[in-house]
Specification:
Order of helices and strands: HHHH
Structural class: mainly alpha
Bound molecules: zinc ion
Shape: globular
Largest sheet: none
Distance between the termini: 18 Å
Number of strands: 0
Radius of gyration: 15 Å
Low-confidence stretches: none
């Protein structure tokens, strides 16, 4: 039996996704940052998600550098990250019935 990588294994905890994503961006400050760091230290799932998150962000960074738009891309990048989560959750075939695990 082949071991398939489950996208769920590459994600932070559901309630921490936005915080962990922002934390890897270095945009968190104050209490949310403290809370997120404390959670990550005690959470193997969030720890395991960090390399994946960072690789995603590196790709978005490359896209941003290649783009012509000089304005800040924080909002767009955040949307792109969330869209990437959606893609990771989507089944490979568009007509596979949508059985939600
Ligand atoms: Zn966690």
């Amino acid at each position: 039996m082949k071991h398939k990588i489950d996208p769920e294994d590459l994600k932070p905890c559901a309630h921490m996704r936005t915080l962990v994503s922002a934390w890897t961006d270095g945009t968190l400050r104050g209490l949310p940052r403290w809370y997120t760091e404390a959670h990550i230290k005690g959470c193997p799932q969030c720890q395991a998600s960090l390399p994946f998150l960072r690789s995603l962000k590196a790709r978005f960074g490359e896209l941003a550098e290649a783009g012509p738009a000089p304005e800040p891309l924080a909002g767009t990048r955040r949307q792109a990250v969330e869209a990437a989560w959606e893609q990771a959750e989507a089944p490979p075939a568009p007509n596979s019935g949508g059985a939600g695990s």
